[in-house]
Amino acid sequence: MRWIVISCLIIILAGFFCVPANGAQPLPDYDKILLITMNYNDNRYSVSSMEVRYGRAPNLDIISGDLKGAILDSKGKELKSFSFQEPGTTYGDISGPPGEDTLIGYTETSSSGEMTIRLPYLPDMQKFTLSDSRDRFLPVSVDLTLPIASFCTDYPRDPDCLALASPSPSPGSDAGRVLLPAILFIGLFIIMAGLAVWTIRRLSRVQPPAQHVVLIVDDEPAIVNLIGIFLSKKGYTTLKASSGNACLEILKKRIPDLILLDVRMEPMNGWQTLSHIKKNPDFRTIPVLMLTAVRLTTETAKRYNICIDDYLTKPFQLEDLSKAIDSILARKQKLEETLVLAKKNGIGKELFFEFATLTRRISINKKILRILDIPHVAPVHADLETLDDMLVAEYIGIKTREYEKRVEQLRREINSAFRKKGLPELSW
Amino acid sequence: MTETSFIGKTGWILTAILVFSLTYTVSAESGQYPVIIMVKDIQTKENLDGARVYFDGGYLGNTTSSSQNGIVVIQDVSPGVHTVRVIRQGYNEMTRKFVFPNETTVEIMISKGSLVSLNQEGPSPHAINIVFYPSSTSYNCTDHEKIPSPEYMSNETLFRENVLDIINTTYMNLDHVTSPADSLPEHYQKKFNFYYYYDPSSPADAFSSCPGSLPKSYWNNVTFSDVTVILYPTYYGRYANTSCQPMGCTRILGPGCSQMKVPADQEMLVTHETGHAAFGLVDTYCGDTHYWQNDPYPNVWESLESCRADARSYDRDPEQCRRIESGGSFSRNCIRNFWHWDPVPDIMTSMYGRFGDAATQRIRFVLLKAGSDVSSQPGDGQP
Q1: Which end of chain B is more exposed for a tag (fewer CB within 10 A), N or C?
Q2: Domain spans, chain B
Q3: Which residues of A touch B36 (CB under 8 A)?
Q4: Same domain for A196 and A80
């Protein structure tokens, strides 16, 4: 038995290390430069800023001059050196007048100015010096620790920053002797942990957080994919449709728990799709959450407010979407559970449905009124459109108050029936 | 150890791992969401595949490697400020910071790049990078005024053709204007990487100063340029008695970095300015210019002795060393304490002729250095 277990582990580990490397990817580009900006004035140089950034450095080897730059490592050893002419050296040329053979010079002298030095980033670079080979004067010597540290704060996963963060192996040590057992241990640990999680899930029959099916309808594939990834991560099963027609086709095959419906689509827009959904008795009970980048108009609100379960305006944060979906599905589940309870205790299904529908309507109407944001009093010079908007808002407001009265009446009736049966009262 | 005790101990270890794994899995799941990186074209707003995405400096993936075009998902992001860097061929590199969990979707809009490589086989490592930039101004020497020159701003094809003409007649033709005494390295043409940068909304001004001026954005986008050439179509009028703005000019900006301006229709002047900007050669005419002994392999010396010593070292006639002095009528009384060796007609003296032995020796030296990575460090000049 022992040998069987050990043999299995060896086979598993061998397989783990034999996974082929992903060789098709392009090589990552980690080239970096150190930018040193200096002010110069009569051969005096002062550093005004330093920055490490991604990019390529110029070829420092092709030009020579009296100024010598050097990059030193932490031990003061020269990693790279180069020379160049004094910045600002200018050669201006004009062709001479007819009959003249030579060019005519033109100089623009400036003993002061700004110079930017672009150096290649080198591992272990720590200091930059600038000296004048004519008099060995050292006008600049700067520590590069700060710009490198600043870069690594922004880019901690850059390989050069990772190398800085991890201590280098001591000379003479055999890295393989340390690494191999560590890799073996990690590999073993991953396999065992995977097996453990798998076993626990099987034994405890833990299901993903939700088995709900969400149909995402949007003609922008990126949005569909984005929401799909997010909802999958949250444990939902997703169906995807890129148009209103595709949505209706999917509904014929599978009924989701919720539809996320984009408004702006061609040729059938979201509102038209919603009409088709609500006309079909097989689909009409599916909650629909409208997603749109277009501001809700009063006309649309008036026509469709009775059909939708929620309304999200793009751009929305994924968390807002998550909350809206959770809220709709929780409401749906609560409705189903309470309905079962009501039916068992002889409470009329129609009564309960009316209560649930009106409760949902009140919530949505209040949200729509917030989105429309229409003034309660007409401005002095209000145009017809504003007045029309106000009428619609007033209409929705009146209907909402009617619903609230009816809901209170229904709640009393249902709670009364529940109390008689010894059941807890409605909590929503 | 008996078989039963072995299995028992293994069971305990497994249980410990199980508990740890479960705790870790639960804690990792709670409150953790993926961050979705969307890469889009700033103009068309379309999702872009083929973009390399880096998260906090580490390579994350390619938008084509994902099944979701234009999207890369980052798992298990820790709260705080993070950086996303996006690189795509033909587009400007873009870096954006975002705060997690405030942002769970990061949209990166990238714009078409203005830098165009002209090397069919792609840039060579350690070669001399020469970037052409169009100017919207020119100069009229008769009227002594800067004039608008919008030709390149509305016609990229014309600019590109002029650039290609210059490359073919000058840089690719160096062996015809250098001394046969010291031949250039074999395949010297591959020692250059050529690019042009075309952004009509930000043109260069060839006559704002001697070497002209470039938009600051250029230096941010093109960090690797060794020689930047501001190109304008033509120079109007001819130098007479009064001063005019120079037709060509080179300025040394710092190590490995110079800028020059030239008219597209004066190929010998392009060669002359390239002598300054790429090869570090010094003017050999006598006039108002900058003289120094440009070691190693100079074409101008600070003393007659050093000129003769070099001539003897390189098997040249030391008697040909001569002082830089009077040329034409405009420099009749000109004399400088510098010496040169190259015979006339010398490109570093006039707008015709060729590079002499001394100048050619320096050009060869630079080309050999440009093609070699012996003195370069890892990452230096890599495309």
Answers
A1: N
A2: 35-110, 115-282+355-371, 285-341
A3: 226, 229-230
A4: no
| A94·B246 Cβ contact <8 A | yes
Mutate to test the interface with A, among B251, B273, B332 (most CBs of A within 10 A): B251
What is the least distance, in Å, from the CA of A30 to any CA of chain B?
8
Please name the amino acid found at residue A382: A
Yes or no, beta carbons of A104 and B375 under 8 Å apart: no
What residues contact B9, with CB distance under 8 A and at least 6 apart? none
Residues of A in contact with B219 (CB under 8 A): 116
Contact B240 A65 (CB under 8 A): no
* Inside any domain, residue A23: no
Beta-carbon separation of B345 and A101 below 8 A: yes
Are residue A305 and residue A383 in the same domain, yes or no?
A: yes
Domain that includes residue A106, residue range: 32-157
Both A191 and A218 in a single domain?
Answer: no
Of A25, A30, A59, which is closest to B129 when you measure between CB atoms?
A: A59
If one counts every other C-beta atom within 10 angstroms of the C-beta of residue B273, the result is 28
| Residue A244 and residue A365 share a domain | yes
As for how many domains chain A has, the answer is 3
The CATH number of the domain where A141 resides is what? 2.60.40
Tens place of pLDDT per residue across chain A (428 aa): 455 555 545 544 444 443 333 334 456 788 999 999 998 887 788 888 999 999 999 998 888 888 899 999 988 999 999 998 888 889 898 887 766 667 888 877 777 888 899 999 999 899 999 988 877 677 788 899 888 988 988 899 999 998 887 655 544 444 555 566 667 777 777 787 777 666 655 544 433 344 688 999 988 777 787 788 778 777 888 899 989 999 998 898 888 989 999 888 888 888 888 888 888 888 888 888 888 776 677 777 766 666 777 777 766 777 778 888 888 888 777 777 777 777 766 667 777 778 877 887 788 778 777 776 666 555 555 566 666 677 777 777 888 888 888 888 888 888 887 777 766 677 66
Annotate B183-232 with three-state secondary structure: CCCCCHHHHEEEEEECCCCCCEECCCCCCCECCHHHHHHCCCCCEEEEEE
Q: For residues B342 and B328, what is the distance between their CA atoms, to the nearest angstrom?
A: 18
> A–B: how many Cβ contacts below 8 A?
320
Pairing of strands A213-217, A44-54: unpaired
Q: Chain B: give the shortest CA distance to residue A196, in Å.
A: 5
Q: Is B379–A120 a contact, with Cβ atoms under 8 angstroms apart? A: yes
Question: A154–B18: do the CB atoms touch at under 8 Å?
Answer: no
Q: Give the A window 299-338 contacts with B, CB below 8 Å.
A: 317-319
CATH number of B35-110: 2.60.40.1120
Tell me whether residues A196 and B21 touch, CB distance under 8 A.
yes
Rounded to whole angstroms, the Cα distance separating A356 from A368 reads 19
Residue A46 shares a structural domain with residue A111: yes
Q: In whole angstroms, what is the distance from residue A421 CA to residue A342 CA?
A: 10
In A156-195, the residues whose Cβ lies within 8 Å of chain B are 156-159, 161-162, 189, 192-193, 195
Residues in A closer than 8 angstroms to B6, CB to CB, are 1-2
Q: What is the CATH number of the domain that holds A261?
A: 3.40.50.2300
The owner of tokens 């001479």 is: A96
Q: What angle do CA B167, B168, B170 make, to 5 degrees?
A: 65
Q: How far is CA A327 from CA A275, A360, B104, in A?
A: 23, 11, 20
Q: Which of A95, A117, A133, A234 to mutate to test the interface with B (most CBs of B within 10 A)?
A: A95
**A187 and A220, same domain (yes or no):** no
Among A171, A206, A241, residue at a domain's last position? A206
Are A308 and A349 part of one and the same domain?
yes
Report yes or no: B356 and B178 within 8 Å, Cβ to Cβ. Answer: no
